[in-house]
Design goal:
The complex is a heterodimer. By secondary structure, chain A is mainly alpha-helical. Chain A has helices spanning 8-41, 44-75, 79-109, 118-144, 147-177, 182-214, 222-228. Mean pLDDT of chain A is 91; it is low at 226-230. The chains are: A mainly alpha, B alpha/beta.
Chain lengths: 230, 299
């Protein structure tokens, strides 16, 4: 078990960094959930709310940037602290992008309310739900430094990609049959694409967690494969 | 400053994590650090074609067991840094490398240390030439209370390295050039060495060490009495000197160790706990004690 630092304020800064990343994860998760809900309920007010609160995540990212730059300069971190700070910096950027995509989903959702699109929307919802769970899990893996949880999340992105591929196939058929509504279908593709990208960014966060714990972000280890089964 | 090439050797480039997650075969085992209780050396103690080989070295100061069974190779043209908390044995260890411990009463050394395959503790070894071959630079610059010229010329003269004044002049000039001091002192060679600034005095001491053709230079906290600019000049010099010499440096500054060395050895209570490429030691050490020390969680 790691001991506390001799300099206690260093521990406080690392705790602060952890709480900022965790908060970013939570806000990004809420943004995504609200964006999807706005899509389902066709609630444009909620969509506008998601777009407007995006700046909250940006502010958090700025706070993480300032804190990490300060810690690098003042603490000159080494070993696992160095890996933690570098990963936090990168993870904050990933989480910020996830929130951006949530805002994009909200923006697009407002164009989707004139056609009956139950099946594709249902697929998008399942992508988003997976992403929300992955986001929760990856932040927990980070807070608890649980490498097998991070690995599990990393592999789950595959499911999102699969749904995305199915959705594209479906939408291509719709577009051939119903070319009058091409704009709506493109919007749907765009929304699905946002979910697919969110999965990729969560995967990067999982790599960050892996790097903090193991010192590299290589996931293709036989043991890792065993762990993600089930 | 440290070159890209040496960064590569230190593992800064080679050890970068794979971004291609599809790559087969190369991956981490579950990362568990070696327990604090484990006192066996972790990491590769040997190098190809070593300059010095130390095997099962033990040092006692009276009853105090200061170095415990330490084995380590010192490579050619490498800078190896010794780090660890005060009293860990790092200075004691480097003092074994040119038999400086012989001068201490009650000091007993066992084990084997070779320089170019010759046992330096053999009873036929004369320590005077040995200490020229394995030179030493100390924490506090200690020029002789003589002129700059005499500070450099003294060693080559007593070791018989020059037969006339012209040769001696040349040794003085080349040594000062190699130590990066020539341009600053060439017009003042007859002035006392003690009149130079701290950083210049330290470079004078390095020039004095170089003047007797060493193979290895031991540096015991060479920058701890210097300001950051003088420190940077010495660090730059260390990087250049590596081309011709092997350098063993003891430093309390981990940043300095990480900047100047290719390999780092971590000592704790007389044990060599871990040795490895510098980048690995400072970013991803294998022993919990090393991790504790470099991250400031000591004790």
């Amino acid at each position: 078990m790691p001991r506390d630092h001799t300099v206690r304020s260093y521990d406080h800064e690392l705790d602060l960094l952890k709480s900022k990343i965790s908060e970013m994860g939570k806000v990004a998760e809420e943004q995504l959930a609200k964006a999807i809900e706005a899509l389902i309920t066709k609630d444009s007010k909620m969509a506008v709310n998601v777009i407007c609160t995006d700046s909250q995540v940006n502010d958090l990212q700025n706070a993480v940037d300032r804190l990490t730059v300060r810690m690098l300069a003042v603490r000159q971190p080494m070993g696992s602290d160095l890996r933690h700070i570098i990963s936090a910096l990168k993870m904050a950027a990933e989480l910020e992008r996830i929130a951006d995509y949530a805002a994009n989903i909200a923006k697009n959702g407002m164009n989707l309310d004139h056609v009956y699109l139950e099946r594709p929307v249902r697929l998008i919802i399942s992508m988003a739900e997976l992403a929300i769970q992955m986001l929760k899990d990856v932040i927990n893996a980070y807070l608890e430094l649980n490498v097998s949880e991070a690995i599990k999340v990393w592999h789950q992105d595959e499911k999102i990609n699969q749904i995305y591929a199915d959705l594209l196939t479906q939408l291509r058929l719709y577009m051939k049959a119903d070319s009058d509504n091409i704009n709506t279908y493109t919007s749907l593709i765009f929304t699905a694409r946002c979910c697919e990208r969110i999965g990729d960014h969560i995967k990067n966060v999982a790599e960050g967690v892996h790097f903090i714990i193991r010192g590299d972000s290589t996931f293709d280890h036989p043991m890792d494969k065993k762990q993600h089964v089930g | 400053m440290i070159s890209l090439k040496s960064m590569d050797e230190a593992g800064f480039i080679g050890n970068m994590p794979e971004t291609d997650t599809e790559q087969k075969g190369k991956a981490a085992e579950d990362r568990v650090l070696v327990d604090r209780e484990n006192r066996e050396t972790v990491g590769e103690i040997t190098v190809d074609n070593p300059r010095m080989i130390c095997r099962e070295v033990n040092v006692w100061y009276g009853d105090k067991h200061a170095i415990k069974n330490v084995s380590l190779d010192i490579g050619r043209n490498e800078v190896i840094a010794m780090i660890g908390p005060s009293g860990c044995g790092k200075s004691t260890f480097i003092r074994c490398l040119n038999r400086m411990n012989d001068t201490i009463d009650g000091c007993r050394i066992t084990g084997e240390i070779t320089l170019d395959a010759v046992n330096i503790y053999d009873k036929n070894i004369d320590v005077v030439p040995l200490r020229a071959q394995v030179g030493m630079v100390f924490q506090k610059p200690n020029p002789f209370p003589k002129s700059i010229y005499e500070n450099i010329a003294y060693g080559p003269r007593i070791h018989g390295l020059s037969s006339n004044k012209a040769e001696l002049d040349e040794i003085v000039e080349t040594s000062l050039i190699k130590a990066g001091l020539w341009d600053e002192v060439k017009d003042w060679l007859d002035q006392p060495g003690t009149g130079l600034s701290g950083g210049q005095q330290q470079r004078l001491c390095i020039a004095r060490t170089i003047a007797v053709n060493p193979e290895v230079i031991l540096m015991d906290e060479p920058c701890s009495a210097l300001d950051p600019i003088a420190t940077a000049v010495i660090e730059d010099l260390i990087d250049e000197l590596r081309e011709h010499y092997t350098i063993v440096i003891v430093t309390h500054s981990m940043q300095q160790a990480s900047r100047v060395s290719q390999r780092t050895a971590y000592f704790h209570l007389g044990d060599l706990i871990e040795v490895g490429p510098t980048a690995q030691i400072f970013t991803n050490p294998s022993h919990q004690l090393t991790e504790d020390y470099i991250t400031g969680r000591f004790g």
